[in-house]
Amino acid sequence: MPAAPTPERYYDRIAHRYDDMYDTPYWDLYRRVSWEHVKPLLPRERSRILDIGGGTGIWAVRLAAAGHDVVCADLSHKMVDVARQKAEREGLADRVTCVRSDLQDLREFGEGEFAMVWAQGDPLSYVPDPPLAVKNVSRVLRPGGLFVASVDSRYAAVEHFLERGRVAELELFIRTGKDQWLADRPEERFPVTFFAPDDLRKMLDRRGFEVVSMIGKTVLPIRKHEKLLDDPAEFRRLLALELDLNRDPALLGGAGHLEVAARKRP
Question: What is the number of H-type helices and E-type strands within the chain?
Answer without folding.
Answer: 12, 9
